[in-house]
Specification:
The complex is a heterodimer of chains A (532) and B (76). Chain A is of the alpha/beta class. Helices cover 37% and strands 20% of the residues of chain A. In chain A, the strands form 3 sheets. Chain A has an 8-stranded mixed β-sheet, sandwiched between helices. The relative contact order of chain B is 0.19. Classes of the chains: A alpha/beta (532), B mainly alpha (76). Chains A and B meet through helix 5 of A and helix 2 of B.
């Protein structure tokens, strides 16, 4: 069973499309510990006595604490915030229940900051889309003990799925933006730099707000790129000279401003910034362009753009809610857009050298390898969930799965790469398990972020790992490749690194390599190993 | 209308429409449990834009009764 739901009302209809089991009403004494994820979904009872409602919240909090100590720390525990659905006041000046609810919600949020397996889901975010009368159906409250109208089940499940997707981080990565009538009003080629609509008056204020949201999206780890039919020089001049532009060219990771067709441009952008087409969202006011892009690139997401400028803000907030929700940002998410820029400078630098060896020597590459610990675990889990291309097995792990590997004595290596142009943060990951009976080690996961490719790091990191496995006393290491639609580029990675095929079929290739002696690593890669 | 109701029932009960006979009775089958009964009523109310009273809901335990109460509402 995927979910085990602790509840004090009938919530089954709200989970009917998910594999879920339910506790007895307000019964926390028993639960199925085989469930993948636990859910706390309680609502205040209907009680005319406000003081009794407040003490009920105290009990909720005690019960949650009891459960946190009993649910395995390796399993996720989703806690819904409390919303006063049956809200009723005897005196308008009495806010005692409201403050107790706010306090409860603050307390569970604090727990989630200490316990990594606790994730908060804000029920208010669902409730706000409905009026009170449609939220509660009194007939079903009294006949079936529901608190949310079962007629809203479909909507609830769609919403819940988005929230859980945000927790396991299935969000898109990049926004591709058109310019004319999209991030500003009017057409640059006709209206001129001063004539495009931006600023404090309608409709310019709509586009200015849109740009403010885009600039903030960047701070939240969303990559911005431009694809527009315009003269490149004119467009860049508009960014520099129009005083009302909120977005600057420095916010844009890559752009294609020319008269080529958009699908070609978008595919080039995808290569340049190394982000799959299925992680991109294309925003364009022109329905024909949207159709052409949709037709040519089925993987990309193309939302309908509103016709009236005053609808753009709400449109964009919906886009963010639908495709870019995230539970918690990591440092890597935030600095990602800067990192992509560094890569661009690095590539230009490459062309100044005659041999790749000279280039690598001059980069002053430093690779810091660490064993996973509580500081790196969230980044590691995130990497397994997000890395699709340079990933040999594409197994997705939660923070708790990673903890389990560490507890079992397996080795979880993560590495960060630095050179004279910048620090890429943690971008390397390898998980090696050990079977002491057969004396064979197995590489369960081997992956690295595509933004560090092009410096031979994928090969030296593997060599380094193999040397560590050998030092542990293992002379044989197995590895395997599981093909997906995206990881074709690594199909012969192990073969290139002197592994031998022992089994091959359509779904997987198994390899083995003997570890007789230490593998040499070129001296211009400087390794630092912190065993912790 | 019988066919519409049969389709709804088959969906809610997650069973083949062949199993939804005119003689269907809640006590004879396992797929018509109390939770699915609730889902069925919610679906019917939505589909026909009607609202059943609790007394009627507890009566609607055979296919014929379901049809009977829907008809009653639609006539009004």
């Amino acid at each position: 069973m995927k979910y085990f739901v602790f509840r004090n009302f009938t919530v089954e209809p709200l989970f009917s499309n998910f594999a879920a089991e339910f506790s007895g009403y307000d019964d926390i004494s028993e639960f199925n510990s085989d469930s993948e994820t636990f859910v706390w979904f309680y609502n205040l009872s209907l009680n005319p006595d406000t003081n009794l409602q407040i003490s009920e919240i105290d009990h909720f909090y005690d019960k949650i604490n009891y459960l946190i100590n009993r649910i395995p720390a390796t399993k996720d525990f989703y806690i819904f915030t409390l919303v006063d659905l049956f809200s009723f006041k005897w005196q308008n000046s009495d806010f005692s229940l409201d403050s107790r609810i706010a306090e409860f919600n603050k307390d569970i949020l604090s727990i989630s900051k200490i316990k990594t397996n606790v994730k908060i889901i804000d029920l208010a975010d669902f409730v706000k889309a409905f009026d009170r009368e449609s939220l509660i159906n009194w007939k079903y409250y009294y006949t079936s003990h529901t608190f949310i109208n079962p007629a809203l089940s479909e909507k609830f499940q769609a919403w819940f799925l988005k929230k859980t997707n945000a927790i396991i981080s299935l969000r898109k990565k990049c926004l591709i933006l058109d310019l004319d009538n999209t991030i500003w009003g009017g057409v640059l080629g006709e209206d001129g730099i001063e004539g495009i609509k931006l600023g404090n008056n309608y409709p310019g204020n709509c586009y200015s707000d849109f740009q403010r949201y885009l600039a903030e999206a960047l701070k939240n780890g969303i990559i911005l790129a431009i694809c527009s039919k315009n003269n490149e020089a004119d467009a860049i001049e508009a960014f520099e000279k129009n005083p009302n532009m909120v977005l600057k060219m420095s916010h844009i990771v890559a752009h294609r401003i020319n008269w080529n067709n958009k699908p070609t441009n978008i595919k080039e952008l995808s290569k340049e910034i190394n982000i799959g087409l299925d992680s991109m969202v294309f925003i364009d006011d022109n329905p024909t362009e949207r159709e052409i892009v949709k037709e040519a690139i089925p993987e990309i997401t193309v939302p309908e753009f509103p016709e009236s400028p005053y609808k753009i803000t709400s449109f964009f907030r919906n886009v963010l809610n639908d495709y870019f929700q995230i539970q918690k940002l990591t440092i890597e998410d935030v600095s990602k857009t800067i990192l992509y820029k560094e890569n661009f400078i690095r590539d230009n630098y490459k062309s100044e050298f005659t041999s790749i060896e000279d280039y690598l020597k001059n980069l002053e590459i430093e690779i810091v390898v660490k064993r996973a610990d509580k500081f790196t675990i969230s980044r590691i889990a995130q990497m397994t969930q997000k890395t699709n291309q340079f990933n040999l097995t594409t197994k997705k792990y939660t923070e708790n799965d990673i903890s389990r590997f560490i507890e079992n004595g397996d080795m979880v290596f993560c590495g960060s790469v630095k050179d004279k142009f910048g620090d890429n943060g943690i971008t390397l990951l390898a998980i090696v398990t050990f079977d002491s009976k057969t004396n064979i080690a197995t590489i369960e996961s081997y992956l690295l972020s595509c933004r560090i490719l092009g410096r031979g790091i994928e090969n030296v990191f593997l060599k380094f790992i193999l040397n560590q496995v050998r030092l542990k006393g293992y002379s044989k290491v197995e590895a395997y490749y599981l093909p997906t639609s995206k990881n074709g580029q690594v199909s012969d990675f192990y073969k290139k690194n002197d592994f031998l095929v022992i089994e091959e079929n359509a779904d997987s290739i198994r390899y083995i390599r003997e570890l007789d002696e230490e593998i040499e690593i070129k001296s211009y890669y400087k390794f630092f190993y912190e065993e912790s | 209308m019988n066919d519409t109701v049969k389709t709804i029932m088959a969906n809610v009960f997650r069973t083949d429409i062949k199993n939804i006979t005119e003689d269907l009775n809640q006590k004879d089958v396992v797929f018509w449990d109390s939770l699915r009964h609730l889902n069925l009523i919610v679906e019917l109310e939505e589909k026909f834009d009607i609202s059943f009273e609790p007394e009627e809901i507890s009566e609607m335990v055979t296919f014929k009764k379901v049809i009977y109460y829907i008809n009653q509402k639609l006539v009004k």
